[in-house]
């Protein structure tokens, strides 16, 4: 090969073009690919593979024993500090799980995404490529029975156990992905660790510093905060503000934050014993013969005592491979001053190391080092609220142990959603409110005869298709596939905070639910309200389908149960509120400026819909007339609402209509007759996008063409069932 890199033309002429995709020319284009990420052809297993079934054959005790043994089997190519990989694995697990953010439920360890870009190459994940390679023999031995996602999270949990800490338990059940997720916004910056605060508005000084939502890290390439302090400035009080904010974005409060930091840094060390510029590129840019391992370190042997990772150097406690209370003893027993590490990073060291606190070197026999702290560690005693908690934990190690165990368990499992998704023998019995629990189903399931009678009773109420469909939709559409929260199960639509949500009040779901509840109470069938709401929606759809001249029975699988208010974490449920719902043509006044059609695709993604299902559901709900707001007829492009016709598509793409925005915001439009100029329709962006976007138009044309209505109804029904059953983890 010549030294000269091929030009784009040369490249494109010989192979698939790079960097010339449509997103290169039209960066604001709607990205429908996010809806079709999990193509079965991209999966190395065949279509019948189910991780839960493969996992059932795993011997968990044997696996744990293997991991425990590997923990102290130091390899020459990456020697273990103090002969124990435990701390290293804890950091790996924490960084796998710690990308989770509560606002959109994205990130987290649930998919094994740390194996792929960008996460595998984030500076904060430095050298964790070696941690994963150390675990390869385990993955190789167990193969399909053990996902990488489970292994990456389990390793840290085992590590804690092998170093004397009693964990709260462990749930398996994370299935792998085979390519990085395409749908996650990690931040606006174009460089790693940029220090220009691009994702912030406001300032520290007046307390107005705000991190761009839904992000949960302060800089591109970090899991949370900069360990040297905000933008590298060693200021522990300001670091506390960043720590508080970023941990809150993951749904962690002050106590959980202190417990995690104190508990985590009871183990291991930081690595920066050499010049920072000795370290080479991240895995994704490593040379081909480096086989995906990055950060080659040219300083001395480049490993062991010379390891450079964060650039900070040293351990927090004199006993880094043992669970004890020495982190708090160390931090409270010393006066600290800022010093530079050998790599030039800001860190804190004792003004004078007290007896008993010298740390034996991780590799060099007989050498002793001072304990060290980073800015976020110092925040644990500088911030007044954190200080109070740190003091309490120092006095009460049992309280620390319990709260660290629970916070660590939450950290590792939060992105998995309800407990029904956990597998394996180590799942603890205690049910926690952040798992969005629903009661177990008790007694016999409602039988077919009773279902028929209930459907008849619902039909007899006079509730319209629109009312029934929009209520079932309102109940189910809170689901998000990112962290598996929300959905129809539990009937939380009648509890706080959902009863008070603007869209639910506006669309009058409470009245419909009252009527459904009456029918339920009058019947001797053992059915939950959650099931009744879905059944009602099915009755509505069947009615609208029939009115359009077709006959379809929608699959209904009972078994949902009703949650109580106590089972509902009100403040984090607020994240599930549909502030925009294209399917019901609803948009709360928003300040983000994100065009409504992008929010529509995001919701469709959260609901696990394909583009044709999204189109059919939207067009179908318009035909039914299911807008959230009684007085808003935008997009109801039909003269016979209530019937599941293809009128929406036929009329939308009719060249006889000319569309114009009603004002500069270009949120709403009127459609006029091209000849007479007479107003025919009104619509919003999420309506017109089915005529303007080339890919969506292609679908609209098929649905709006002769014979297309049948296809549309088919996709409507498959999408409907998917939305109603997204949270039926007992079925998949
Ligand atoms: Fe951590 C390590 C920072 C949290 C656990 N850390 C570490 C380091 C740093 C840090 C800088 C070093 C790295 C190297 O190697 O160099 N962190 C940090 C911060 C934060 C944290 C800033 C926030 C606050 N951690 C944390 C948590 C946890 C942890 C939460 C758990 C729980 N870490 C850890 C460990 C370690 C670390 C275990 C060690 C590792 C080794 O040894 O390797």
What are the main properties of this structure?
732 residues, mainly alpha, 37% helix, binds heme B/C
Layout of helices and strands:
Elements: H1 8-14, H2 22-25, H3 51-55, H4 60-71, H5 86-97, H6 128-134, H7 136-142, H8 148-162, E1 200-201, E2 210-211, H9 236-248, H10 254-264, E3 269-270, E4 314-315, H11 326-333, E5 336-340, E6 346-350, E7 359-360, E8 368-369, H12 375-382, H13 384-395, H14 397-413, H15 448-460, H16 465-476, H17 502-506, H18 509-522, H19 529-547, H20 570-573, E9 580-581, E10 586-587, H21 596-606, H22 611-624, H23 647-652, E11 657-661, E12 668-673, E13 679-684, H24 685-692, H25 694-704, H26 708-725
Antiparallel strand pairs: 1-2, 3-4, 5-6, 7-8, 9-10, 11-12, 12-13
Helix pairs in contact: 4-8, 5-8, 9-12, 10-13, 10-14, 12-13, 13-14, 16-18, 16-19, 18-19, 22-25, 22-26, 24-25, 25-26
Bound molecules: heme B/C.
Heme B/C binds next to helix 5, helix 10 and strand 3.
Structural class of the helices, strands and pairings?
A: mainly alpha
Shape: globular
Largest sheet: 3 strands, antiparallel
- Average pLDDT: 95
The level of helicity is: 25-40%
What's the arrangement of strands in the largest beta sheet? 11-12-13
Q: Ions, cofactors, ligands: which are bound?
A: heme B/C
Cα-atom radius of gyration: 28 Å
Number of strands: 13
Q: Span between N and C termini? A: 50 Å
Percent strand equals 5-15%
DSSP helical segment count: 26
**Poorly predicted spans:** none
Describe this structure in words.
Helix content is 37%, strand content 6%. With 732 residues, the protein is mainly alpha-helical. The strands form six sheets. Strands 11-12-13 form a three-stranded antiparallel β-sheet. β7 (359-360) and β8 form a beta hairpin. α10 (254-264) crosses α14 (397-413) and α13 (384-395) crosses α14 (397-413). The model has no long low-confidence stretch (mean pLDDT 95). Bound molecules: heme B/C. Residues 81, 87-88, 90-91, 94, 224-225, 227, 243, 260-261, 263-265, 267-271, 309-310, 312, 374, 376, 408 line the site of heme B/C.
């Amino acid at each position: 090969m010549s030294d000269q890199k091929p030009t784009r033309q040369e490249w494109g002429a010989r192979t698939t073009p790079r960097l010339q995709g449509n997103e290169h020319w039209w960066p604001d284009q709607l990205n429908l690919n996010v809806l079709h990420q999990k193509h079965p052809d991209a999966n190395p297993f065949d279509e019948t593979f189910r991780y839960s079934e493969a996992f059932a054959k795993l011997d968990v005790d044997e696996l744990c024993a293997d991991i425990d043994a590997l923990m102290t089997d130091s390899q020459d190519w990456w020697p273990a500090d103090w002969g124990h990989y435990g701390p290293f694995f804890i950091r790996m697990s924490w960084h796998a799980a710690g990308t989770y953010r509560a606002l959109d439920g994205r990130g987290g360890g649930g998919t094994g995404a740390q194996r792929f870009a960008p996460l595998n190459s984030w500076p904060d994940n430095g050298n964790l490529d070696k941690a994963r390679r150390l675990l390869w023999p385990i993955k190789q031995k167990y193969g399909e029975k053990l996902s990488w996602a489970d292994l990456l999270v389990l390793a840290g949990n085992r590590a804690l156990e092998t170093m004397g800490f009693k964990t709260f338990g462990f749930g398996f059940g994370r299935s792998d992905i085979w390519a990085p997720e395409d749908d996650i916004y990690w931040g606006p910056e174009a460089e790693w660790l940029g220090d220009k605060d691009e994702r912030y508005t406001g300032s520290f000084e007046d307390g107005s510093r705000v991190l761009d939502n839904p992000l949960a890290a302060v800089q591109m390439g970090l899991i949370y905060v900069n360990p040297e302090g905000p933008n590298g400035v060693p200021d522990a009080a300001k670091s506390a503000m960043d720590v508080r904010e970023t941990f809150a974005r993951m749904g962690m409060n002050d106590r959980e934050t202190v417990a995690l930091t104190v508990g985590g840094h009871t183990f291991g060390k930081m690595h920066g014993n050499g010049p920072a510029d000795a370290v080479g590129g991240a895995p994704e840019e490593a040379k081909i013969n480096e086989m995906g391992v990055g950060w080659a370190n040219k300083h001395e042997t480049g490993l062991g005592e010379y390891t450079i990772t964060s650039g900070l150097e040293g351990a927090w406690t004199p006993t880094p491979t043992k669970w004890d209370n020495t982190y708090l003893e160390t931090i409270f027993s010393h006066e600290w001053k800022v010093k530079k590490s050998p790599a030039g990073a800001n860190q804190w060291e004792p003004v004078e190391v007290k007896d008993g606190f010298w740390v034996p070197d991780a590799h060099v026999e007989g050498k002793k080092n001072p304990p060290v702290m980073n800015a976020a560690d110092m925040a644990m005693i500088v911030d007044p609220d954190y200080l109070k908690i740190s003091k309490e934990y120092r006095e009460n190690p049992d309280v620390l142990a319990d709260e660290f165990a629970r916070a660590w368990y939450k950290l590792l499992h939060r992105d998995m959603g309800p407990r029904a998704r956990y597998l394996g023998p180590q799942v603890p019995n205690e049910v926690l409110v952040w798992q969005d629990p629903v009661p177990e189903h008790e007694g016999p399931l409602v039988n077919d005869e009773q279902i028929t009678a209930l459907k008849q009773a619902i039909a007899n109420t006079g509730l319209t298709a629109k009312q029934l469909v929009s209520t079932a939709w309102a109940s189910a559409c809170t689901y998000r596939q990112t962290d598996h929260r929300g959905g129809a199960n539990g009937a939380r639509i009648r509890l706080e905070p959902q009863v008070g949500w603007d869209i639910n009040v506006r669309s009058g779901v409470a009245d419909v639910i009252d009527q459904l509840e009456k029918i339920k109470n009058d019947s001797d069938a053992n059915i939950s309200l959650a099931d009744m709401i879905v059944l009602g929606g099915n009755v509505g759809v069947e009615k609208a389908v029939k009115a359009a001249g077709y006959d379809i029975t929608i699959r209904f699988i009972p078994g949902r149960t009703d949650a109580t208010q106590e089972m509902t974490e009100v403040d984090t449920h607020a994240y599930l509120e549909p502030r925009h719902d294209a399917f019901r043509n609803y948009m709360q006044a928003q300040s983000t400026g994100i065009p409504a059609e992008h929010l529509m695709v995001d919701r469709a993604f959260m609901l696990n819909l394909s583009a044709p299902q999204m189109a059919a559901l939207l067009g179908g709900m318009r035909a039914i007339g299911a807008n959230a707001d009684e007085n808003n007829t935008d997009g109801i492009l039909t003269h016979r609402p209530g019937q599941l016709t293809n009128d929406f598509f036929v009329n939308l793409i009719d060249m006889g209509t000319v569309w114009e925005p009603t004002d500069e915001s270009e949120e709403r439009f009127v459609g006029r007759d091209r000849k007479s100029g007479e107003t025919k329709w009104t619509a919003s962006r999420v309506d017109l996008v089915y005529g303007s976007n080339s890919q969506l138009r292609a679908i609209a044309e098929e649905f709006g063409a002769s014979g297309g209505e049948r296809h549309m109804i088919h996709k409507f029904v498959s999408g409907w069932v998917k939305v109603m059953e997204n949270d039926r983890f007992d079925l998949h």
